[in-house]
């Protein structure tokens, strides 16, 4: 255990550990406080005052000298990829952010492209232009020149820029329809193994050649099935094995899937899941036909390329004697029982853990959890970041319920439901979610003996529990009876397992605001901006009025729904069009109009945007817009042909409790 604020000092010379209760001597050097420069007050040192600290690690914590930042980009250049036009956005984004990539003077970068063959790029300093080397034997992939494919970013910067400027047009007339993704990944693994680092893969279709090739497993007629949903797990273990090999060499694989048809994300996602990578998905991606997705890719890349990154990391979570942690959720590989191997770690990843109470905790009034992350910063410094949490132990059930964190409960259940869907079946997972509500409310109601059994009673802390679980049952990951593409469902499941709680909650239960009267709302002041604070609305169509305009915040997308009879002043000032009829179908940005309502609306949206790492895209919706279905599917309190309304769901829960 790392020293933390919850240890106790018995006297000046001895301290007691809060996790194992052992009494230890205070080392001599710990008596000195470097901040106050005073001696003899160990309990006042910063690491005993703060529950989050970062230590600079000594060489005992290194198996090898800290690695440099190494970035390898693996790009699909088949006909499909070129047609979708993503290369222009990726290359442009890299050119703009080349100097902002986290790293130091040792940072290295490389590029691989692939279709039915694999192409490497020699960027050795001193060449007059980048040199393309093609390996066409994809069954026995090798590196054509091992030393000049990953180059120092600073020494070869001009060649790298030349390549990025040329790439988007190099394959314009390609006739290549095949995709040898597996061999390209094998090559990437060979190239990265000596150092470790990050592989960013851009893929637009089902891999069709060489190792790891996949076949279509989706039956479009089964998309709205209420029965069995198949193929939620991988079709091959190729991608998992590759990820574990990468993880062993401190390399993570991030996947950007930009597909127009089924691409078997259930199989492809394994390359990121087990290597501590992350997954981005842009269905129906097309640079010109789908401007919202193109803008999303651009914004995501800016964040992705410039955010902090840690390399060759391991994470361990420890807890007080009597408790044990048995299941971890997130993207990583569990190396030993409690050591998570994270080849890369980034600030946008979330983890969840399940723990159990092994022994009676009657003798103790507090329990502690400590997570320690050992990583190499992008500047090559070995660090240990430690968070310690201390919680009280209570003896009455009412106190247990009072301390429940409903959002944490829901997000952990979502993680468990994903596992259950894959290992057992989707319907099993759905039943388990409903049972979680029934069991917890039944147990609560049985403690309050004076209640009338005909009423459904929930403790204050869990009032929203049934609503959130209903929302989860209507989420793309778990819904049945509503047409859902298999890749969309699998991606929603991937997000459940890897997104931080705040982001996940918006996916499960979006926030809805009325925004056509923001001038009248109360405001707060944030950095010279006046930000209106409209009240939250229930997610029900009865809250929408034809005269209004509403903003729905789903985490990674904002929908603005405009009612048919919305005032022309709002449409003119905020949307920049004279009337409802003239508002276009594909509107993804609000103009800067010099009017108070425009300023307040933009201020409110940018305040919402600032609270999260990913930049959400905006979509304006009119009644005829195809995106309207998406918007209405989020109104989870309403009944659909395949699912209960909130009221019906509560009745159903009550019937099950009173059975």
Automatic annotation (TrEMBL):
<dbReference type="GO" id="GO:0006886">
    <property type="term" value="P:intracellular protein transport"/>
</dbReference>
<keyword id="KW-0813">Transport</keyword>
<comment type="similarity">
    <text>Belongs to the SEC23/SEC24 family. SEC24 subfamily.</text>
</comment>
<dbReference type="InterPro" id="IPR036465">
    <property type="entry name" value="vWFA_dom_sf"/>
</dbReference>
<dbReference type="InterPro" id="IPR036180">
    <property type="entry name" value="Gelsolin-like_dom_sf"/>
</dbReference>
<feature type="domain" description="Sec23/Sec24 beta-sandwich">
    <location>
        <begin position="310"/>
        <end position="394"/>
    </location>
</feature>
<feature type="domain" description="Gelsolin-like">
    <location>
        <begin position="532"/>
        <end position="605"/>
    </location>
</feature>
<dbReference type="GO" id="GO:0008270">
    <property type="term" value="F:zinc ion binding"/>
</dbReference>
<keyword id="KW-0862">Zinc</keyword>
<dbReference type="InterPro" id="IPR036174">
    <property type="entry name" value="Znf_Sec23_Sec24_sf"/>
</dbReference>
<keyword id="KW-0479">Metal-binding</keyword>
<dbReference type="InterPro" id="IPR012990">
    <property type="entry name" value="Beta-sandwich_Sec23_24"/>
</dbReference>
<dbReference type="InterPro" id="IPR006895">
    <property type="entry name" value="Znf_Sec23_Sec24"/>
</dbReference>
<keyword id="KW-0256">Endoplasmic reticulum</keyword>
<dbReference type="GO" id="GO:0005829">
    <property type="term" value="C:cytosol"/>
</dbReference>
<dbReference type="GO" id="GO:0030127">
    <property type="term" value="C:COPII vesicle coat"/>
</dbReference>
<keyword id="KW-0963">Cytoplasm</keyword>
<dbReference type="GO" id="GO:0000149">
    <property type="term" value="F:SNARE binding"/>
</dbReference>
<dbReference type="Pfam" id="PF04810">
    <property type="entry name" value="zf-Sec23_Sec24"/>
</dbReference>
<feature type="domain" description="Zinc finger Sec23/Sec24-type">
    <location>
        <begin position="1"/>
        <end position="29"/>
    </location>
</feature>
<dbReference type="InterPro" id="IPR029006">
    <property type="entry name" value="ADF-H/Gelsolin-like_dom_sf"/>
</dbReference>
<dbReference type="InterPro" id="IPR041742">
    <property type="entry name" value="Sec24-like_trunk_dom"/>
</dbReference>
<dbReference type="Pfam" id="PF00626">
    <property type="entry name" value="Gelsolin"/>
</dbReference>
<dbReference type="Pfam" id="PF08033">
    <property type="entry name" value="Sec23_BS"/>
</dbReference>
<dbReference type="GO" id="GO:0070971">
    <property type="term" value="C:endoplasmic reticulum exit site"/>
</dbReference>
<dbReference type="InterPro" id="IPR006896">
    <property type="entry name" value="Sec23/24_trunk_dom"/>
</dbReference>
<keyword id="KW-0472">Membrane</keyword>
<feature type="domain" description="Sec23/Sec24 helical">
    <location>
        <begin position="405"/>
        <end position="505"/>
    </location>
</feature>
<dbReference type="InterPro" id="IPR050550">
    <property type="entry name" value="SEC23_SEC24_subfamily"/>
</dbReference>
<dbReference type="InterPro" id="IPR006900">
    <property type="entry name" value="Sec23/24_helical_dom"/>
</dbReference>
<keyword id="KW-0968">Cytoplasmic vesicle</keyword>
<dbReference type="GO" id="GO:0005789">
    <property type="term" value="C:endoplasmic reticulum membrane"/>
</dbReference>
<dbReference type="InterPro" id="IPR007123">
    <property type="entry name" value="Gelsolin-like_dom"/>
</dbReference>
<keyword id="KW-0931">ER-Golgi transport</keyword>
<dbReference type="Pfam" id="PF04815">
    <property type="entry name" value="Sec23_helical"/>
</dbReference>
<dbReference type="InterPro" id="IPR036175">
    <property type="entry name" value="Sec23/24_helical_dom_sf"/>
</dbReference>
<dbReference type="Pfam" id="PF04811">
    <property type="entry name" value="Sec23_trunk"/>
</dbReference>
<dbReference type="GO" id="GO:0090110">
    <property type="term" value="P:COPII-coated vesicle cargo loading"/>
</dbReference>
<keyword id="KW-0653">Protein transport</keyword>
<feature type="domain" description="Sec23/Sec24 trunk">
    <location>
        <begin position="66"/>
        <end position="305"/>
    </location>
</feature>
<protein>
    <submittedName>
        <fullName>SEC24 homolog B, COPII coat complex component</fullName>
    </submittedName>
</protein>
